[in-house]
Write a structure and sequence with these properties.
The protein is an alpha+beta fold and 267 residues long. It has 2 domains: 120 residues, Diaminopimelate Epimerase, Chain A, domain 1, CATH 3.10.310.10; 113 residues, Roll (Diaminopimelate Epimerase, Chain A, domain 1). The protein is 15% helix and 41% strand. The protein contains 4 helices and 19 strands. The protein has a 17-stranded mixed sheet that branches. Strands 9-10 form a two-stranded antiparallel sheet. The longest helix has 13 residues. The protein is globular, with a radius of gyration of 18 Å.
Length: 267
């Protein structure tokens, strides 16, 4: 039997396994089985922690479909809570600096990338105002914040059939590594309402990198000012960013329970 933590950031939930407590061989099929909400433990992402040469801990992120993600803002805040002190977390997107305090955490998310090849897109185009559309969603912005995002600004986020359009856009050939899909509504100069379709997961209650990508896209279009509150179905995050500087994400993280499982029984 091995220990795990069940955690969430604004309802975006995780099973966190610390490999430093004992090695676990984890394959995509096992990750899918653990993430299954009917026959497994249930989560949006499976998080593996391990030793890191140049950071306090290394973090790997498996989506519910077994694919691996480069970054996850909500999971990073949860890992910061486990660290219990300011530290550095190594991810596929680079090393992130975290500062936990009173069930909250701030994450230095690094600088966003806007070049079409960095998103990546299948062809060159202006990523601030992309000349593409899918039914009612068109003219998005694209940004890589450690993982790829596309952001649509709409009049009413609730009116968007995200279960249909999110899946279609995620798998569109324009995005060779697939993409996270954000639909955002500007409520005020310092407030955005957001729904997110996460690549490899589906619609989630919150997405930290989605909040960062959306805030950055809105700031680039001069729709909001920094810092900005991003309200997701699970709650609020605060995002601050200035061109040429790293993004700062601040929000809550929750430890739900600690359990034990035999990982050989999954997958």
């Amino acid at each position: 039997m091995a220990r795990f933590h069940k955690m969430h950031g604004l309802g975006n939930d995780f099973v966190v396994i610390d490999l430093r407590e004992g090695m676990v061989g984890m394959m995509a099929a096992q990750a899918r089985a653990i993430a299954d909400r009917h026959t497994g433990i249930g989560c949006d992402q499976l998080i593996l922690l391990d030793h890191a040469a140049n950071a306090d801990v290394a973090m790997r992120i498996f989506n519910a479909d077994g694919s691996e993600a480069e970054a996850c803002g909500n999971a990073t805040r949860c890992v910061a809570l486990l660290l219990g002190k300011p530290g550095r977390i190594e991810t596929l997107a680079g090393i992130l600096e975290v500062s936990p305090a009173n069930a909250m955490a701030q994450v230095v998310m690094g600088e966003p990338a806007f070049d079409w090849a960095r998103i990546p897109l299948a062809m060159p185009m202006d990523t601030l105002d992309m000349p593409v559309g899918w039914d009612s969603l068109d003219r998005p912005s694209a940004v890589n914040v450690g993982n790829p995002h596309v952001v649509f600004f709409v009049d009413d986020v609730e009116a968007v059939p995200l279960n249909d359009l999110g899946l279609r856009i995620e798998h569109d050939p324009l995005f060779p590594e697939r993409v996270n899909v954000n639909v955002a509504q500007i409520l005020a100069k310092d407030h955005i309402r957001l729904r997110v379709w996460e690549r490899g997961v589906g619609e989630t209650r919150a997405c930290g990198t989605g909040a960062c990508a959306t805030a950055v896209a809105a700031l680039r279009r001069k729709l909001v000012t920094s810092p900005v509150t991003v309200s997701l179905p699970g709650g609020d995050l605060t995002i601050a960013w200035q061109p040429g500087e790293p993004m700062l994400m601040t929000g809550p993280a929750t430890h739900v329970f600690t359990g034990e499982a035999d990982w050989s029984q999954f997958g």
